[in-house]
Amino acid sequence: MEENKQNPFPGNDNKPMRKGPKFNIYWVYGIIFVSLIILQFYTGSYNSNTQVKSFQEFRDDYLYQGKVDHVNVVNGSEVEVFLNKQAQQPETKGPLGMHSNNSGSPDFSFRIGSDEQFRDDMSDALKAKPANIKEPNVFYDVRQNWLRDILNSFLLPIIILVAMWFLIMRKMGGGAPGAGAGGIFNIGKSKAQLFEKGTRVNITFNDVAGLDEAKVEVMEIVDFLKNPKKYTALGGKIPKGALLVGPPGTGKTLLAKAVAGEAQVPFFSMSGSDFVELFVGVGASRVRDLFKQAREKSPCIVFIDEIDAIGRARGKNVVMSNDERENTLNQLLVEMDGFSGDSGIIVLAATNRPDVLDTALLRPGRFDRQISIDIPDVKGREKIFEVHLKPIKKSKDLNIPKLAVQTPGFAGADIANICNEAALIAARKGKEEVDMSDFNDAIDRVIGGLEKKNKIISPEEKKVIAFHEAGHAICGWFLEHAHPLIKVSIVPRGVAALGYAQYLPKEQYLYTLEQMQDQMVALFGGRAAEEITFGKVSTGAQNDLERITKMAYSMVSIYGMNEKVGNVSYHDGNQEYATTKPYSEETAMIIDQEVRALIAEQYERSKELLRHHVNHLNALAQELLKKEVLYKDDLERLIGERPYEESLANESIPPVADIVSETPVTPS
Asked: What is the pLDDT of residues 39-67, one digit of tens each?
């Protein structure tokens, strides 16, 4: 998007935020305190040439040598010594090398305990001095230090109390200049991060790939604020808000960052959890403060990430209700569409749980638009790969379209993770470029987990795993409605995966009864192969059984695909914490019976199919034991081409990975 060189909002030229180290006022407090301590003990009677002596040195080296002219006892704590002219001559310097001075200041001084102690010591020294030594004059001087007296009397305690008050108020966040927003007095302030026009954000719409329709919607919202007359001239109103809805990792927050990088208006960014605090009323206060700041910066955009933290539906049950969260939501509803009728503020929000949001929040006038950000299709994934491969030193033979085909159901965050993992794998191998094999290893690691080369598996267990995965592959190969196979492996991966088969789902949003039954047969292929080959089953089908059971209950109780239960659906998406079932115990018994009958029927189909292709099953299992990893080309070589046509283009359903799992750990 081209930058508009002319400012579309006169008077809204905000300077960019200052960066760099902040000034710390605690240094000022420290300097003042140290200065007061120095002034407390400073008397102003010392000279730069003054040297401090003890009474013994004074007596032996100067008094008994006849070098002392007179001494001054200052304030009963200090003795200033003045030497006579003979002692100040260079040839008669004392052992400490005293220099003469003509400034009237003492030649040296020393500290005493008290006047009485000095009189006693001086009297004893004069009695013992040689007879030819002249007795020096002793003067007692009282000098006033008005600064020290003032500090000692009342000023120093006041200064200390004021400094402590400033420190406490600054710590609490109020009363002191430049107080931060983290103190107790500012706890109701908004924590939103402001990106103004001069603030540089490195993410733009060019960094967002695979979301073309969503980008058009968001760019139009930005254009609403830039050119409002273009839309209001025909009688239209600027939308109040837009909700970005999509699964995790699809790029909702990334798209909002791109808006902050492209928009020429102030952009407030805040998480839904930032409104929640320990104290009652803080959430509503922060909502008010956020919109108060937004009005001052209007026109602007307010982005609330993970809005479901405060926007959940208000509960009718008193036990399940949360007054603080509901008060925060009520304040948000009022701010978005209340009597104030704010214009020029557009609220962007993101969530992956639109089903739990309050209906009052989703109505027109608050969030006028819901922008769906879904998992990208094969073309979108190809564009996302191109964006994330820019900083990577990739090989020339890297096939980006093939990577897009091999990653069905992957979101943008997953693709970014694959690119990063591929680069790390190539670096670990000492390569200078990232090639296709590195990306294949990265895809395997993301789907199945880290390869466990040091895991000790007995030959018997490895054989069971090989036949289990071969059973999945055979059932998927010879069933019309099963997903086409991409890869089958018996290499241990992750926390609990001893092997897995990866399939390529078709782009499909509606499923028939026959399609779901064929998928159940394919999932049963592993356990059925174990029973046919070894006459017993293992715990490796845990993941398969979980998915089969969930699918069977959905077919019977939700999708109305059972004759006895009938065309009814007992699914209620609004009852998130439902504690009661919407049907009787008799109906629950019928549902359980029909689910068991459906599962048993598909299991028999799976065993019958494998008995018919038992030769192919054995050949495929033996090849797996040799190579450990087989691809589609290997299956065509071993058992022939798949008898049903495959449509691999434009798929968007998540990939299927049938996992042989250890017990009791459940694979993710």
From this structure: 555 544 444 444 556 788 888 888 888 88
Reading the block at residue 616, the tokens are: 């192919």
Closest CA to 439 of 499, 468, 409, 398: 398
Q: Locate tokens 């990063």: which residue? A: 420
Cα 311 from chain centre: 21
CA nearest to 377, candidates 509, 515, 255: 509
Cβ contacts of 341 within 8 Å, gap of 6 or more: none
Tokens of 261: 């990088």
By three-state DSSP, how is residue 416 classified?
A: helix
Q: Tell me: the pLDDT tens digits for 398-441? A: 888 888 888 888 888 899 999 999 999 999 989 999 999 899 88
Which residue in this structure is represented by tokens 């022939």? 640
Catalytic residue among 335, 421, 469, 530: 469
- Reported as a single tens digit per residue, the pLDDT across 136-176 is 888 887 776 666 666 656 666 777 777 777 777 666 554 43
User: pLDDT tens digits, residue range 97-144?
Assistant: 344 444 467 888 888 878 788 888 888 888 888 878 888 888 887 776
Interstrand relation of 497-503 and 300-305 (parallel, antiparallel or unpaired): unpaired
Cβ 313 vs Cβ 357: under 8 Å: yes
The H-assigned helical ranges of 304-399 are 308-311, 323-336, 359-362, 378-388
Q: Verify whether residue 480 is a known catalytic residue.
A: no
Give dist(CA 469, CA 477) in Å, integer: 12
SS3 390: coil
* 3-state SS assignment for residue 270: strand
Largest Cα–Cα distance in the chain? 137
